[in-house]
Design a protein that fits this description.
This protein is mainly α. Among the domains are: 78 residues, Up-down Bundle (Four Helix Bundle (Hemerythrin (Met), subunit A)), CATH 1.20.120; 38 residues, no CATH class. 72% of the residues lie in helices and 0% in strands. It is elongated and about 145 Å long. The termini are far apart.
């Protein structure tokens, strides 16, 4: 063989050897990188898990519930709304009794507060005027307030009797005929003890006897 051909063969062999060596080095470097990334990845995953736990604990922290006793002590800002019955609900059910019981209790509390206001007013403005006209107007004002409060006192007694009727399951029925008084009538007058028919008959009798 000529020298040139031998030289070409040796060059080709050396080139193939160098190419193989470079491939091996590239493969080794890639495997080393993968190992390093795999080694570092568990740490990152642990940190991510811890961060997620913190976020979930912050979100899932339950709100502090106010106890029932404190919620009951809070006063109502507005009047009690009218009763909205359900379809097929029995007359004077437990929910209906509860509603009218709340209405009566709040009404009684309001009347007591008004009575206390009048007593305070009488104490504070109990001055004797020199002018007889001023004194007479003051006495008339006081007498009017006392009359209204006397009516309210009687009304408080009626409210107490109707609350007792709710406890005895007698509330909402006419005392004369035993029929249902009706929710609308009780909403208008919670201390009603007679149905509309019996009440109208009583009013007619009163007019006949009085007239």
């Amino acid at each position: 063989m000529p020298k040139k051909a031998k030289n070409n063969k040796t060059k080709a062999v050396s080139r193939s050897k160098t190419a193989k060596r470079t491939k091996k080095t590239i493969v080794k470097k890639a495997t080393q990188k993968k190992k390093t990334t795999n080694k570092a990845s568990p740490k990152k995953t642990i940190i991510k898990k811890l961060v997620k736990k913190k976020l979930t604990t912050k979100k899932s922290t339950p709100k502090k519930k106010t106890p029932k006793k404190l919620a009951l002590k809070k006063k109502r800002t507005g009047p009690v709304s009218s009763y909205k019955g359900r379809k097929g609900e029995k007359y004077m059910s437990a929910a209906m009794k509860k509603h009218f019981n709340i209405v009566l209790l709040e009404w009684r509390q309001h009347l007591k507060e008004e009575m206390q206001k009048t007593f305070d007013h009488l104490k504070n403005k109990g001055e004797s005027y020199a002018d007889p006209i001023d004194r007479a107007s003051q006495e008339e004002e006081f007498a009017f307030e006392l009359r209204t409060r006397d009516r309210e006192r009687k009304l408080i007694n009626k409210i107490a009797s109707s609350i007792e009727q709710i406890k005895q399951n007698d509330y909402g029925y006419c005392h004369d005929c035993g029929c249902e008084i009706g929710v609308k009538r009780l909403e208008a007058r919670p201390t009603a003890t007679h149905c509309i028919d019996c009440k109208t008959l009583d009013e007619i009798k009163e007019k006949q006897l009085g007239g």
